[in-house]
Design goal:
It is elongated, with a radius of gyration of 18 Å. It has two domains: 50 residues, no CATH class; 41 residues, no CATH class. It contains six helices and no strands. It is mainly α and 95 residues long. The chain is 71% helix and 0% strand.
């Protein structure tokens, strides 16, 4: 298993939806690849922070600016389907 293969299975790894045989390969790779180990550690910490986060309200002006910035970035990289449709949807207010 290489880093690309590992990253392709990262979501399955965290969801616990990975084939046991593949899990062995993933664990072997993690034991030898510091970069992927850092990715797993950082992702796990991010998930933990997100789960413990509380929502808060912020001004509509800020929500609109944030939405516009995200949509502009998505348009630039071309990785967001139906950008115009989604740009008109309300932004969820999270921490």
């Amino acid at each position: 298993m290489n880093c690309t293969d590992f990253l392709a299975k990262l979501t399955d790894y965290f969801d616990g939806q990975i084939d046991p045989t593949l899990l062995v390969e993933v664990k072997e790779h993690l034991g030898t690849c510091h970069h992927c180990e850092v990715v797993v550690d950082t992702t796990r910490k991010t998930i933990d922070v997100y789960r413990g986060a509380q929502t808060y309200e912020f001004p509509d002006e800020l929500a609109n600016r944030l939405r516009a910035a995200v949509m502009d970035r998505c348009k630039t990289v071309g990785k967001y389907p139906d950008v115009e449709k989604r740009a008109s949807e309300p932004v969820a207010k999270h921490s």
